[in-house]
Amino acid sequence: MFPESKVTEIYCMADDFCKEFTLQQEKYMIEDKKTKHRNNPNRMSDAIMVILILFHSCGFRCFKHYYKEYVCKHLQHLFPRQVSYNRFVELGRKYCFP
Length: 98
Description:
Oligomer: single chain
Mean pLDDT: 82
Helix content: 55-70%
């Protein structure tokens, strides 16, 4: 599908975008001082956006098939800290906003 260099390039672009988006978002967000939040970064936070971009750029129709058959098998060396499909879908909701 995509050469490894192209996936790395997309990853760098998405990472730069997420960092800038987070900085801009924090400027305009109201801080909630009543509740405490954990600040544990997700182990696939940057990779989620890249996997979604790659899915929309290739010819797969079913995301489940794409993730299980292509990402988990052929892109395992690029995304070594993969999670299960169900967990990926749960985490993907959080990263749809950016």
